[in-house]
Specification:
The chain is an alpha/beta fold. Among the domains are: 93 residues, Glutamyl-tRNA Synthetase, domain 3 (Alpha-Beta Complex), CATH 3.90.800.10; 105 residues, Ribosomal Protein L25, Chain P (Beta Barrel), CATH 2.40.240.10; 115 residues, Ribosomal Protein L25, Chain P (Beta Barrel). Helix 2 crosses helix 11, helix 7 packs across helix 8 and helix 11 crosses helix 12. 39% of the residues are buried. The mean pLDDT is 95. Bound molecules: adenosine-5'-triphosphate (ATP) and magnesium ion.
């Protein structure tokens, strides 16, 4: 990653530096990114990915991609492939370190047997009603399950029979034998295995018992010899159990878990459950709908990996939960697109302009700079003729003070072209303006008048003879409240009904030649992305982000 020479420091990076100084883990740095393949990755995952892969890369270690597929019911190979694709797109690579937690099921089973042998785990057969009673609460310790006093032999036998399928789902569980009086509920003899007859997408029907997250995750890290296991703050309270399991097994060179605050964004939901619901109930078109905060959605919207990485760097890593303004992400996207996007002319709501003193049938070509931010991008020739289209919004019959665009009797500059002056407004029977009759000043080719007279406005246009029709998908925020789902409100009632508008526009010919995946700027309007739905006859452009930058304005330095 070469976005920036020196990565911004944070408490995790400093911890790793210290560990290396102390030669902890023999000077190794090994991290992992452990998604559960039950949904697509989102911008929150990008934060974790940049951290996990970034730390490993900076300190010469490896970052594993581990599919945390220990929960058989919701996982799917489609998600596995999408996750791999999105991480590569973001700019990271796990090399040979692709792992599946389900590949460790046998090893995890052996570890559970080992805990039983050490009298540190037992089979418990409390009913759900009894569980309620035995669990205790924040103020009172829990009660010991009768299973707690079983002999090692009996526990080994019962656990083997759980695996062999002799008991019904939920009839028995395996529990760690820790402390029923612990103030941390997670340490009150937590369940580490449960019976569940569910088909696993990789293991098939081989197993009817599955390890619980807290037992599985630390073992996955330990088996892979991870050194620094970085996760989000909600796991802080699970850390004592993480450590307990590995200590109980006397695992050598144990991995250590460190927590950081997850990313929350305004106007965005990030929970996979909610994202799945948006897709399944067709509130959006799919996982890669450009309104989704998924990496595939942001990609299709026209966000770039560079912009997302920059955003992750700017938000930093802390221990405090907070909500980041989505405008900051949009700012990063604009900054990046400004450097890489070609500028083009496109008209959203066409209003015909006829240049009465321009020869009929003549077409000339005007030179346009492709990207003023990138000298390498060169120039192109834009066709110009007697009949043009401009945007309706750039004309006013009765302009208020301060309106510097076109108006009756007023002069304006056409981008890359000439000064034109409006002489007559043509209306249809309903009084709607359908055409402007104008004259152009041939002396002003290139945008300056030899007599030094000035015009304040420059507007975009396309030549009628050369314009092509295209579809534009105008995306806006998916939710119209800052914190969807807050205060018990159903987040689906807060969907923005105008989050997607489809319209037709007219584009200059060069735009029609941009391949799928191009980032372009429609001058004076917005950045757009050429959607894969485009065909040779009909281009489709997704609006990535408008040119107006609310974040930079709010945060003027
Ligand atoms: P959800 O709770 O919505 O199901 P998850 O956190 O369970 O999401 P995982 O697939 O388990 O999703 O996440 C993989 C990794 O990404 C975890 O280490 C998790 O901590 C991290 N992660 C998930 N969401 C965020 C977020 N919003 N910000 C930072 N890291 C995140
Ligand atoms: Mg999770």
């Amino acid at each position: 990653m070469s976005d920036n020479a020196a990565p911004a420091t944070n408490f995790i990076r400093e911890m790793v530096v210290k560990d290396l100084e102390n030669n902890k883990h023999g000077g190794r740095v090994e991290t992992r990114f452990p998604p559960e393949p039950n949904g697509y990755l989102h911008i929150g995952h990008a934060k974790a990915i940049c951290l996990d892969f970034g730390i490993a890369a900076e300190f010469g270690g490896a970052c594993h991609l581990r599919m945390d597929d220990t929960n058989p019911t919701k996982e799917d190979m489609e998600y596995v492939e999408a996750i791999k694709n999105d991480i590569h797109w973001l700019g990271f690579d796990w090399g040979e370190h692709l792992y599946f937690a389900s590949d460790y099921f046998e090893k995890m089973y052996e570890c559970a047997v080992e805990l039983i042998k050490r009298r540190l785990a037992y089979v418990c057969d409390l009913t759900p009603e009894e569980w309620e009673k035995y669990r205790g609460n924040l103020y009172e310790p829990g009660l010991e399950s009768p299973g707690r006093s079983r002999s090692v032999e009996e526990n080994l036998d019962l656990f083997a029979r759980m695996r062999a399928g002799e008991f019904a789902d939920g009839e028995k569980v395996l529990r760690a034998r820790i402390d029923m009086a612990s103030p941390n509920i997670h340490m009150r003899d937590p369940v580490i295995y449960r019976i569940r007859r569910a088909h696993h997408f990789r293991q098939g029907d081989q197993w009817c018992i599955y390890p619980m997250y807290d037992f599985a995750h630390c073992l996955e890290d330990a088996i892979e010899q991870v050194t620094h296991s970085l996760c989000t703050l909600e796991f802080e309270i699970h850390r004592p159990l993480y450590d307990w399991v590995l200590e109980a097994l006397e695992w050598p060179d144990r991995p250590e878990q460190t927590e950081f605050a997850r990313l929350n964004l305004t106007y965005t939901v990030m929970s996979k459950r909610k994202l799945l619901q948006l897709v399944k109930e067709h509130h959006v078109d799919n996982w890669d709908d450009p309104r989704m905060p998924t990496l595939s959605g942001l990609r299709r919207r026209g966000y770039t990996p560079e912009a997302i990485r920059k955003f992750c760097e700017m938000i930093g890593i802390t221990k405090f939960n907070s909500v980041t303004d989505v405008a900051l992400l949009e700012y990063c996207v604009r900054e990046d697109l400004n450097k890489r996007s070609g500028r083009y002319l496109a008209v959203m709501e066409p209003l015909k302009v006829t240049l009465e003193n321009y020869p009929a049938g003549k077409i000339e070509y005007l030179e346009a700079v492709n990207n003023p931010e990138d000298p390498e991008a060169g120039t192109r020739q834009v066709p110009f003729g007697r009949e043009l289209y401009i945007d309706r919004a750039d004309f006013m019959e009765e302009p208020p003070k301060g309106f510097f665009r076109l108006a009756p009797g007023k002069e304006v500059r056409l981008r890359y072209g000439y000064f034109i002056k409006c002489n007559e407004v043509v209306k249809d029977a309903d009084g709607r303006i359908i055409e402007l009759k104008c004259t152009y000043d041939p002396e002003t080719r290139g945008g300056n008048a030899p007599d030094g007279r000035k015009v304040k406005g420059t507007i975009h246009w396309v030549a009628a003879a050369a314009a092509r029709k295209a579809e534009v998908r105008l995306y806006d925020r998916l939710f119209n409240v800052e914190n969807p789902g807050a205060d018990g409100v159903d987040f689906l009632t807060q969907l923005n009904p105008d989050s997607k508008r489809v319209a037709e526009c007219l584009i200059e010919p060069a735009l029609a030649a941009c391949p799928v995946g191009s980032h372009v700027q429609f001058e004076r309007q917005a950045y757009f992305y050429v959607d894969p739905d485009s065909t040779a006859d009909r281009m489709v452009f997704n609006r990535t982000v408008t040119l107006k930058d609310s974040w930079a304005r709010q945060n003027k330095r």
